[in-house]
Write a structure and sequence with these properties.
Length: about 300
């Protein structure tokens, strides 16, 4: 099609061949192939002149519009690759997104004013390709997949309770004491290792038994823990700030808890848009400094 349009504009197949680096005979074959497919002559050709037939004139006008549309599309795609602009669709776990993504996204939008972002907060597993999501933040053990994974920051699970609860109940000093304590449990965990911890001698313990309060929302459990309802177990990005401020206290500090990680995942390494590359870099800078929140450093070393 492009060779045909060029032949019309150049006034000869030789000129079209020169534009595309072809031989004149090869340029002629391109045009002949189109004529064969359409079963119509498009050009009246002689050794010196080239004229459009009636069918060729109609075909040329349509081809010209199509090639211009393709050129415009190519230009727009190149601009999205060369400039940070356009829409990003980001998925993240509900609690993590609510507590930590707002300031990070706001600072990114301030740096790149031509970008817009749509956030999908959900604890369900999202199929990035099927749902048209550019990037997802996932925490904990990842499922095997073809997705590209970038580790953003560490995250430790913690046992904690409010001072008011510990003053009334007493600070648990043994595994059995912890097992008997009122517990606040999250029901939406997708990673293994819930309510486990390892003693200083390397023995792993599972904390089971009655649960006073169960919820699929970690922020609700945080609120309950702060009011002294029981001992909570969850990720540092939820409880770390309250631990650092003294509103919550770590329980069984000498025992080791599970370590998770915060990841960014996206569909492919090929043809990643500049806006997505910049957003991934921004996440790495923001979340890689300490443990999402700089105030968590003290709590997680305790």
């Amino acid at each position: 099609m492009a060779v045909f349009v060029s032949a019309v504009e150049e006034g000869s197949l030789v000129g079209a061949a020169r534009r595309f680096g072809l031989s004149p005979s090869m340029a002629g074959k391109h045009v002949s192939a189109i004529e064969g497919e359409l079963q119509a002559r498009l050009l009246q050709r002689s050794t010196r002149t080239l004229k459009l037939t009636e069918a060729g004139s109609v075909y040329y006008k349509h081809c010209k519009k199509i090639l211009e549309a393709v050129k415009d599309a190519n230009t727009q795609v190149r601009e999205t690759q060369e400039n940070v602009r356009g829409l990003l669709r980001i998925a993240a776990p509900d609690t993590f997104g609510t507590m930590h993504l707002g300031p990070t996204i706001a600072s990114f939008l301030e740096i790149y004013p031509e970008v817009s972002i749509e956030i999908l907060l959900s604890d369900r597993y999202i199929d990035l390709v099927a749902e048209g999501v550019d990037l997802a933040i996932r925490i904990g053990k990842l499922q095997d997949s073809d997705l590209v994974v970038k580790r953003l920051a560490p995250c430790r699970m913690v046992y904690c309770a409010a001072p008011s609860f510990l003053n009334q109940y007493g600070m648990p000093k043994t595994i059995e004491h912890l097992r008997k304590a009122p517990r606040l449990a999250f029901t939406g965990g997708v990673s293994p290792g819930d309510w486990t911890l390892t003693s200083p001698d390397g023995q792993m313990h599972i904390i089971d038994g009655p649960v006073r309060l169960a919820s699929n929302n970690m922020q609700m459990l945080l609120s309950a823990a702060l009011t002294g309802a029981g001992i909570a177990y969850g990720p540092s990005f939820v409880f770390g700030g309250s631990i650092s401020s003294g509103a919550l206290e770590l329980v069984l500090k000498d025992y080791k808890t599970s370590e998770l990680a915060i990841h960014a995942v996206y569909p492919t390494r090929r043809h990643v848009s500049l806006k997505l590359r910049r957003f991934i870099d921004h996440l790495a800078v923001q979340f890689g400094r300490t443990e999402v929140d700089p105030s968590l450093r003290t709590a997680l070393r305790a």
